[in-house]
Structure formats: structure tokens, C-alpha cells
Amino acid sequence: MMITPKAGDRVSEYVLVEVVGRGTFGEVWKARHHIWDNQWVAVKIPTDLQYVRNLQKEGAAVHGLHHPNIVRAIGLDPFADPPYFVMEYIDGASLRQLIQRHPRGLPMPIVREVMRAVLRALDHAHANGVIHRDIKPENILICGGVDRSIDTVTAEDVRITDFGLGQAESVSAESMMQSGSVLAEAGKTIAGTIAYMAPEQREGQPADARSDLFSAGVMLFEMLTGERPGGSEMPGHLRNDLPAWADVLFARLYARRERRFASAAAALEGLESAMQPPKPDAVTPAAETPYRTLDDVERAASRGTCPRCNAVVSANDNFCSDCRFQLVAALRRCPVCDNLPGAEDSFCDQCGSRLAVSAA
Known about the structure:
Layout: E1 10-11, E2 14-22, E3 26-33, E4 40-46, H1 52-63, E5 73-77, E6 84-88, E7 92-94, H2 95-101, H3 108-127, E8 140-143, E9 158-160, E10 181-185, E11 188-192, H4 199-202, H5 209-225, H6 235-238, H7 244-253, H8 264-274, H9 294-302
Antiparallel strand pairs: 1-2, 2-3, 3-4, 4-6, 5-6, 7-8, 8-9, 10-11
């Protein structure tokens, strides 16, 4: 039986001060060094013996990650009583707290900086063989606390934490320490937070780097609008002051796996390039646009270019991925969830419903 930790107890070199996080399977304590009073850490202690193995996995995963946007590992002993994992202490707020304070969406500068940081951290983790599997606002920390001016937040202030599911070959209910959810289907156990989980994870398929990107897409929508995505809505449908890159980035993250960015590095490059203003010669002035009707637009799209910005498009696209220009005269909608499948799709990529074949 494990010792129940309390304030004043010493764990390794640190004295427990107060609980700063509590979940079903463990607690996170703020602690100070027993000699150097100005040295603070966070100590994760399981309260259920079944979680010890996952604590060990998390410590091993984070120990190999050295990145300014990932909470740093300091110490680990899964065989102590109580077992513990010591991490860098971030004196700040979670992204969830910031979203709750801005229910209609965060200011664009902080959204941009958070996405930069998250994608940089994921790129580093994925390059080292670690898939987070539970990207959500609760696991993103912002240095400085809720009361700081968020207009001053930069990517350097952002940290990803809680790699409790990272590198797990198989995950179970015991994997979940905080607000994760579990689905069981056909003998499979799937761990993660359902609202942010990629479709392949919900179906019990192996997660990969692109699964983390889907979760980042859900989080992006929530930062922009204060709500999670539903159906075919784009962030720009709910908030009219968004720059074009917001919808562009979201569309490439919140998509079925084969249509997502191939990697976090590609998503970061897409973010940076989408924020750049268009080149003067890249857009044909409206008065000189040779495409006068929607039929003309569809013919242009079938030739592989967007009539507004000349970006490469496919015959299956409803919108240009660069400038969000509508490429078809009539949008095809899923009769079940109102999603916008491509012209050549046989199944809806949102709900999986079989689609009627378009008349030739």
C-alpha cells in the first residue's frame, strides 16, 4: 500500500507544499528544494498503484525530450514509496483557463504564438518517437499566470505537459490521470480525451503524428471561437474578424488522416506561409478576373488552379486551401451531419455515412 502524501512530506530532495492538480489516479504537488527555498518543482505522485507503470513511461518519454516548449523532466523513481516524477514547475495558467476568460475567442496574437509553440514541440517529440495522444487546452501551460497581459505572450512562454500516454504501445483506463476519457469497443480500450481525439484513435487504430495534429486542430478552433468544432463549420463562420490563415490551417488539421498535414513541421510551415501577405502578382485584380460565372470557376478548378490566387487545387476540392475561394457552383452536403464532402467522395469524412453518387 502506498503512502498518502501530505504537505510537509519530503519526496527525494523536495518538500511538498500544496496540491496544484488532482485526478482519478494521482496528484500533482508544488514542492520546494529542502535546502534551496527558491527552487520550485512539480511532483506527480500516483494515488493508485495501477498508474505507476504509466508514470514510469511518462518519465522515460519526457526525459528524452529537450525542448523549450516541453515541460522538463528532473527526477523519477517509480519504485519509491510513494513513487514520484519530478518536473519543471510552471508558474502560470493552463490554456483552458485563458479560453474560459475569453469565451468568444482569444486574441489572434496569442492564438498564433500558442500554435507556433505547440507545433514546434510536437515536431520535436515526433522526431524522437513520442506521440502525445492527448493534446488539449488543459495540457498547454502559459507562463505568467491568468493575470498577466496575454498580449505579451510569445511562443517562448508556452509549454506542453502531461505525456502520460506518450510512447504507450497499448493504453488503458489506468493511463488516464486527469480528465481523459475511455472508450471500449469490441475488446479494445482507447485512452484519450474524446472531444479532441482523432477519428482513427476513436476507432481503436494506432495513433501517429497526424493524430496529434488533429487534436491541435480541435484546440485551434476552440481558441478562435470559444467552442469546439461541429459539422462542417469553419472558425470564420463563427467569428468574422479572423484572418484567412485561420480557416486554412484549421482545414488541414481537422481532416481525415490522409488529408492532414504530413507532419508538425509541415503544419508549422503552413502556418508561417499562410500568414504571409499574398504577392502582388499572385492575385488577379477583381476587375480583370477572366472567370465571370461559377461555370467558369469550375472549369478553372478542373484545370488544377484557383481562379482567385492561382494556387494548385484538385477536382475534389470545394474550396481553395490557400485563399478559401469557393470552387464549385453548389456545395455537396452530407445528409446526416451537413459536412461538405468532396465531389468524388463515396463516404462522409466526418460521420462516415455513405453518400449518394452524383448524377453525371
